[in-house]
Amino acid sequence: GDTLVLRGVKRTYRGEGGDLPVLRSADLTVRAGEIVALVAPSGAGKSTLLHVAGLLDRADGGSVLIEGRDAGGLPDAARTAVRRDTIGFVYQAHHLLAEFSALENVVLPQMIAGRSRRAAQDRGRALLSAFGLGARLSHLPGKLSGGEQQRVAIARALANGPKLLLADEPTGNLDVGTADVVFNELLAIVRQHGLAALIATHNPDLAARMDRTVTLRDGRLG
Ligand code: ADP
Ligand code: ADP
User: Fold this and answer.
1) Is ipTM > 0.85 here?
2) Are 92 and 172 in contact (CB under 8 A)?
3) Mean predicted lDDT score pLDDT of the chain
Protein backbone atom coordinates (compact mmCIF):
# COMPACT_ATOMS: atom_id res chain seq x y z
CA GLY A 1 0.00 0.00 0.00
CA ASP A 2 0.87 3.67 0.09
CA THR A 3 2.69 4.41 3.33
CA LEU A 4 3.07 8.16 2.80
CA VAL A 5 1.02 10.34 0.47
CA LEU A 6 1.38 14.11 0.22
CA ARG A 7 -1.26 15.89 -1.82
CA GLY A 8 -0.89 19.55 -2.67
CA VAL A 9 0.94 20.25 0.57
CA LYS A 10 1.55 23.94 1.31
CA ARG A 11 3.65 25.51 4.05
CA THR A 12 4.40 29.20 4.33
CA TYR A 13 6.50 30.77 7.09
CA ARG A 14 5.06 34.13 8.14
CA GLY A 15 7.53 36.72 9.37
CA GLU A 16 8.23 40.43 9.83
CA GLY A 17 9.88 40.69 6.44
CA GLY A 18 6.91 39.05 4.73
CA ASP A 19 5.77 35.55 3.94
CA LEU A 20 8.06 32.79 2.73
CA PRO A 21 6.18 30.09 0.81
CA VAL A 22 8.46 27.06 1.18
CA LEU A 23 6.05 24.33 0.03
CA ARG A 24 3.69 25.56 -2.69
CA SER A 25 2.09 22.30 -3.76
CA ALA A 26 4.08 19.21 -2.87
CA ASP A 27 2.84 15.85 -4.16
CA LEU A 28 4.51 12.57 -3.30
CA THR A 29 3.70 8.90 -2.79
CA VAL A 30 6.08 6.53 -1.00
CA ARG A 31 4.90 2.93 -1.06
CA ALA A 32 5.70 0.23 1.50
CA GLY A 33 9.19 -1.10 0.87
CA GLU A 34 10.20 1.87 -1.25
CA ILE A 35 13.24 4.02 -0.44
CA VAL A 36 13.08 7.51 -1.92
CA ALA A 37 15.91 10.04 -2.02
CA LEU A 38 14.91 13.66 -1.41
CA VAL A 39 17.34 15.98 -3.12
CA ALA A 40 17.28 19.78 -3.05
CA PRO A 41 19.58 22.76 -2.69
CA SER A 42 20.14 23.97 0.87
CA GLY A 43 17.26 26.19 1.97
CA ALA A 44 14.82 24.69 -0.54
CA GLY A 45 12.66 23.23 2.22
CA LYS A 46 13.76 19.63 2.75
CA SER A 47 13.55 19.86 6.53
CA THR A 48 10.17 21.57 6.30
CA LEU A 49 8.89 18.80 4.05
CA LEU A 50 10.17 16.06 6.38
CA HIS A 51 8.63 17.79 9.41
CA VAL A 52 5.25 18.12 7.69
CA ALA A 53 5.37 14.52 6.42
CA GLY A 54 6.35 13.34 9.91
CA LEU A 55 3.51 15.23 11.61
CA LEU A 56 5.94 17.44 13.55
CA ASP A 57 4.73 20.54 11.72
CA ARG A 58 1.33 21.30 10.22
CA ALA A 59 0.76 22.08 6.56
CA ASP A 60 -1.24 25.21 5.68
CA GLY A 61 -3.01 23.33 2.93
CA GLY A 62 -3.23 19.98 1.20
CA SER A 63 -3.16 16.63 2.94
CA VAL A 64 -0.74 14.20 4.57
CA LEU A 65 -1.86 10.57 4.50
CA ILE A 66 -0.08 7.94 6.57
CA GLU A 67 -1.03 4.38 5.62
CA GLY A 68 -4.13 5.68 3.89
CA ARG A 69 -5.34 7.76 6.80
CA ASP A 70 -5.56 11.55 6.60
CA ALA A 71 -3.29 12.13 9.58
CA GLY A 72 -2.26 15.70 8.79
CA GLY A 73 -5.61 17.14 9.81
CA LEU A 74 -6.03 15.21 13.07
CA PRO A 75 -5.91 16.93 16.47
CA ASP A 76 -2.47 17.16 18.09
CA ALA A 77 -2.87 14.15 20.40
CA ALA A 78 -3.93 11.89 17.54
CA ARG A 79 -1.07 13.16 15.37
CA THR A 80 1.36 12.37 18.18
CA ALA A 81 -0.02 8.84 18.45
CA VAL A 82 0.29 8.23 14.70
CA ARG A 83 3.84 9.60 14.79
CA ARG A 84 4.84 7.44 17.75
CA ASP A 85 3.34 4.26 16.32
CA THR A 86 4.26 4.52 12.64
CA ILE A 87 7.08 7.01 12.01
CA GLY A 88 10.79 6.95 12.84
CA PHE A 89 13.11 9.96 12.44
CA VAL A 90 16.83 10.22 11.98
CA TYR A 91 18.47 13.63 11.96
CA GLN A 92 21.91 14.80 10.88
CA ALA A 93 22.88 15.27 14.53
CA HIS A 94 22.19 12.23 16.66
CA HIS A 95 20.21 14.06 19.40
CA LEU A 96 20.81 11.21 21.84
CA LEU A 97 20.19 11.86 25.54
CA ALA A 98 23.70 12.40 26.92
CA GLU A 99 22.93 11.15 30.44
CA PHE A 100 21.51 7.84 29.23
CA SER A 101 23.31 4.78 27.89
CA ALA A 102 23.06 3.62 24.29
CA LEU A 103 20.59 0.93 25.33
CA GLU A 104 18.49 3.32 27.44
CA ASN A 105 18.25 5.71 24.50
CA VAL A 106 16.60 2.91 22.51
CA VAL A 107 14.53 1.63 25.45
CA LEU A 108 12.94 4.93 26.53
CA PRO A 109 10.83 5.60 23.42
CA GLN A 110 9.46 2.07 23.65
CA MET A 111 8.47 2.51 27.29
CA ILE A 112 6.81 5.81 26.41
CA ALA A 113 4.86 3.85 23.80
CA GLY A 114 3.72 1.42 26.50
CA ARG A 115 6.12 -1.49 26.18
CA SER A 116 7.41 -3.13 29.39
CA ARG A 117 11.00 -2.40 30.39
CA ARG A 118 11.90 -6.05 29.88
CA ALA A 119 10.48 -6.23 26.34
CA ALA A 120 11.97 -2.85 25.47
CA GLN A 121 15.40 -3.96 26.67
CA ASP A 122 15.22 -7.20 24.68
CA ARG A 123 14.28 -5.33 21.55
CA GLY A 124 16.84 -2.59 22.19
CA ARG A 125 19.62 -5.16 22.60
CA ALA A 126 18.59 -6.93 19.40
CA LEU A 127 18.46 -3.70 17.42
CA LEU A 128 21.81 -2.44 18.72
CA SER A 129 23.40 -5.85 18.12
CA ALA A 130 22.15 -5.73 14.54
CA PHE A 131 24.21 -2.54 14.20
CA GLY A 132 27.29 -4.19 15.70
CA LEU A 133 26.87 -2.38 19.03
CA GLY A 134 26.27 -5.40 21.23
CA ALA A 135 29.39 -4.56 23.25
CA ARG A 136 28.46 -0.87 23.59
CA LEU A 137 25.05 -1.14 25.24
CA SER A 138 25.99 0.56 28.51
CA HIS A 139 28.20 3.25 26.98
CA LEU A 140 27.10 6.86 27.26
CA PRO A 141 26.77 8.56 23.86
CA GLY A 142 29.81 10.73 24.60
CA LYS A 143 31.96 7.60 24.84
CA LEU A 144 30.94 6.41 21.36
CA SER A 145 32.44 7.34 17.99
CA GLY A 146 30.40 9.50 15.61
CA GLY A 147 29.46 6.48 13.52
CA GLU A 148 28.39 4.55 16.62
CA GLN A 149 26.32 7.47 17.88
CA GLN A 150 24.49 7.66 14.58
CA ARG A 151 23.89 3.89 14.60
CA VAL A 152 22.26 4.26 18.03
CA ALA A 153 20.12 7.09 16.66
CA ILE A 154 19.00 4.83 13.79
CA ALA A 155 18.24 1.98 16.22
CA ARG A 156 16.18 4.43 18.31
CA ALA A 157 14.24 5.53 15.22
CA LEU A 158 13.35 1.87 14.58
CA ALA A 159 12.59 1.05 18.22
CA ASN A 160 8.81 1.24 17.96
CA GLY A 161 8.63 -0.69 14.68
CA PRO A 162 7.73 2.20 12.39
CA LYS A 163 6.27 1.75 8.91
CA LEU A 164 7.89 4.95 7.64
CA LEU A 165 11.44 6.17 8.19
CA LEU A 166 12.17 9.85 7.60
CA ALA A 167 15.81 10.92 7.59
CA ASP A 168 17.42 14.33 7.13
CA GLU A 169 21.05 13.93 5.96
CA PRO A 170 21.42 10.95 8.31
CA THR A 171 25.15 10.53 7.68
CA GLY A 172 25.92 14.17 6.90
CA ASN A 173 28.03 14.68 10.03
CA LEU A 174 30.25 11.65 9.47
CA ASP A 175 33.52 11.37 7.60
CA VAL A 176 33.14 9.95 4.09
CA GLY A 177 34.27 6.40 4.87
CA THR A 178 32.10 6.05 7.98
CA ALA A 179 29.13 7.69 6.24
CA ASP A 180 29.37 5.16 3.46
CA VAL A 181 29.26 2.18 5.85
CA VAL A 182 26.54 3.57 8.13
CA PHE A 183 24.39 4.55 5.15
CA ASN A 184 24.59 1.01 3.74
CA GLU A 185 23.61 -0.40 7.15
CA LEU A 186 20.65 1.97 7.27
CA LEU A 187 19.48 0.92 3.80
CA ALA A 188 19.93 -2.76 4.66
CA ILE A 189 17.79 -2.63 7.78
CA VAL A 190 15.12 -0.55 6.05
CA ARG A 191 14.96 -3.13 3.25
CA GLN A 192 15.06 -6.05 5.67
CA HIS A 193 11.97 -4.74 7.43
CA GLY A 194 10.22 -3.63 4.25
CA LEU A 195 9.82 -0.06 5.52
CA ALA A 196 9.02 2.95 3.41
CA ALA A 197 11.72 5.61 3.64
CA LEU A 198 12.21 9.20 2.56
CA ILE A 199 15.84 10.22 2.99
CA ALA A 200 17.17 13.70 2.30
CA THR A 201 20.72 13.87 1.03
CA HIS A 202 23.04 16.20 -0.84
CA ASN A 203 25.18 13.29 -1.94
CA PRO A 204 24.39 11.97 -5.46
CA ASP A 205 26.27 8.75 -4.70
CA LEU A 206 23.98 8.04 -1.73
CA ALA A 207 20.88 9.06 -3.71
CA ALA A 208 21.84 6.57 -6.42
CA ARG A 209 21.64 3.70 -3.90
CA MET A 210 17.96 4.38 -3.28
CA ASP A 211 15.02 3.26 -5.43
CA ARG A 212 14.33 6.68 -6.92
CA THR A 213 15.00 10.35 -6.42
CA VAL A 214 12.57 13.24 -6.03
CA THR A 215 13.76 16.83 -6.28
CA LEU A 216 12.32 19.74 -4.32
CA ARG A 217 12.40 22.95 -6.33
CA ASP A 218 10.28 26.11 -6.10
CA GLY A 219 8.09 24.46 -3.47
CA ARG A 220 7.20 21.48 -5.64
CA LEU A 221 8.46 17.92 -5.89
CA GLY A 222 9.47 16.57 -9.27
P1 ADP B 1 16.44 22.86 3.87
O2 ADP B 1 16.21 21.78 4.87
O3 ADP B 1 16.18 22.43 2.44
O4 ADP B 1 17.76 23.53 4.00
P5 ADP B 1 14.41 24.31 5.39
O6 ADP B 1 13.15 23.58 5.30
O7 ADP B 1 15.21 24.21 6.64
O8 ADP B 1 15.32 23.99 4.11
O9 ADP B 1 14.12 25.87 5.17
C10 ADP B 1 13.50 26.35 3.99
C11 ADP B 1 13.40 27.87 4.07
O12 ADP B 1 12.50 28.22 5.12
C13 ADP B 1 14.71 28.54 4.38
O14 ADP B 1 14.73 29.78 3.68
C15 ADP B 1 14.62 28.77 5.87
O16 ADP B 1 15.40 29.88 6.24
C17 ADP B 1 13.16 29.01 6.09
N18 ADP B 1 12.68 28.56 7.41
C19 ADP B 1 12.85 27.33 7.92
N20 ADP B 1 12.26 27.25 9.13
C21 ADP B 1 11.69 28.44 9.37
C22 ADP B 1 10.93 29.00 10.46
N23 ADP B 1 10.61 28.27 11.53
N24 ADP B 1 10.53 30.26 10.35
C25 ADP B 1 10.82 31.00 9.28
N26 ADP B 1 11.53 30.56 8.21
C27 ADP B 1 11.97 29.30 8.26
P1 ADP C 1 9.33 -8.04 18.40
O2 ADP C 1 9.45 -9.39 18.99
O3 ADP C 1 9.89 -6.97 19.27
O4 ADP C 1 7.97 -7.71 17.87
P5 ADP C 1 10.09 -8.81 15.75
O6 ADP C 1 9.96 -10.27 15.98
O7 ADP C 1 9.04 -8.09 14.98
O8 ADP C 1 10.31 -8.05 17.15
O9 ADP C 1 11.49 -8.51 15.08
C10 ADP C 1 12.67 -9.25 15.39
C11 ADP C 1 13.84 -8.31 15.43
O12 ADP C 1 13.73 -7.26 14.48
C13 ADP C 1 13.96 -7.62 16.77
O14 ADP C 1 15.32 -7.45 17.00
C15 ADP C 1 13.32 -6.29 16.57
O16 ADP C 1 13.92 -5.34 17.42
C17 ADP C 1 13.65 -6.01 15.13
N18 ADP C 1 12.58 -5.26 14.49
C19 ADP C 1 11.28 -5.57 14.40
N20 ADP C 1 10.59 -4.67 13.71
C21 ADP C 1 11.48 -3.75 13.32
C22 ADP C 1 11.41 -2.58 12.55
N23 ADP C 1 10.28 -2.12 12.01
N24 ADP C 1 12.53 -1.91 12.36
C25 ADP C 1 13.66 -2.34 12.87
N26 ADP C 1 13.82 -3.42 13.59
C27 ADP C 1 12.74 -4.13 13.81
Assistant:
1) no
2) yes
3) 97
